[in-house]
């Protein structure tokens, strides 16, 4: 029996395939320096793990509501009011199995075959694949280095047709670390006026911003408020990748449909995880662990960006958010894929090909600096060696 046609174009995540290949080289005794995975190297803060253990002991082991407990939903609302200046009703919140399933829920709830969806290029690639599963037509809008990774509004306007149903926004963005300015989002809002287009805003990196920059949710722009569905989660800021916890905040008019649909996809996330996440949101101001991790990421970013920009063949902008550097490798004369292979084989440094995230990623590689400072120092030393070797080759 053949599986459904909609699965034909799917492949295993290239980031995971690359990580598996590198792990195999490590198992063969090769020293490798890994800058591939978007996974913080910190343990989950202990007050969150303790809350989970207590919840299991207290009997939070039965079916939860599809959208999470009232306490969880209220904690999400309180967080958004306190930190983002956005007031929501707890009914607007739906718990999800990570931001990844939130994306699946939102896209499969809105996109019919033939609908058009606007997705950033480059972008963490699950959105494109989920849109394809829906039979939707993906149109990408470029986020270019020369434009400080902001949305080119003239290009965006040209991409919109009567079939455009959704625009995906991700700020801070994976893989580029770019943060969209309020002015840029206001430009988007102007284009969206009188258009029936849903904004799907992936805000999973919103707490990880640097140099005093604040990530602005499109929902903060008054005319986008009722059009914006927010996706967020616990993996990145709280270092909880393995907990698989996230959420959607939807305008009230879509709440019932999304709630029912989510019930068919996952029927809720574990009750004890919900308790731990509620504690994470409510008690974080007391423990400040996110801020400590953010501060560490900022130091690592500063060090790495400075070292990269000392080289002749590699360069990068100062990323304002997330924990990625999108390193320009055009002066090496290699393609993104060739450069990745060359660095792995000759220097034991593993990064991710920019093209995994879209055609705009050609000439770039993604570096995740969610790695220890020792790893980062060792990686930078090897990048300098690679740079000297390119110079010796006359590049
Ligand atoms: C932009 C973006 N959205 C969503 C996700 C998925 O996150 P989660 O672990 O919450 O499923 C990731 C993970 O790397 C991401 O980079």
What layout of secondary structure does this protein have?
Elements: H1 14-27, E1 33-34, H2 46-57, H3 70-84, E2 93-96, H4 98-110, E3 116-121, H5 126-133, E4 137-142, H6 153-159, E5 164-170, H7 182-192, E6 198-202, E7 228-233, E8 246-249, H8 252-265, H9 271-287, H10 289-308, E9 324-328, H11 336-347, E10 349-350, E11 352-353, E12 364-368, H12 373-392
Parallel strand pairs: 1-10, 3-4, 3-5, 5-6, 6-7
Antiparallel strand pairs: 2-8, 7-8, 9-12, 11-12
Helix pairs in contact: 2-9, 3-9, 4-5, 10-12
The structure holds pyridoxal-5'-phosphate.
Question: Can you tell me about this structure?
Answer:
- With 395 residues, the protein is of the alpha/beta class.
- The protein contains 12 helices and 12 strands.
- The chain has 2 domains: 143 residues, Aspartate Aminotransferase, domain 1; 242 residues, 3-Layer(aba) Sandwich (Aspartate Aminotransferase, domain 2).
- The strands form 3 sheets. A 7-stranded mixed sheet has the order 2-8-7-6-5-3-4, sandwiched between helices. Strands 9-12-11 form a 3-stranded antiparallel sheet, covered by helices on one side. A two-stranded parallel sheet has the order 1-10.
- Strand 5, helix 7 and strand 6 form a beta-alpha-beta unit.
- Helix 2 packs antiparallel against helix 9, helix 4 runs parallel beside helix 5 and helix 10 packs parallel to helix 12.
- The longest helix is centred in the C-terminal third of the chain and has 20 residues.
- The protein is globular and about 65 Å long.
- The chain binds pyridoxal-5'-phosphate (PLP).
- Pyridoxal-5'-phosphate binds next to helix 4.
- Pyridoxal-5'-phosphate (PLP) binds next to helix 4.
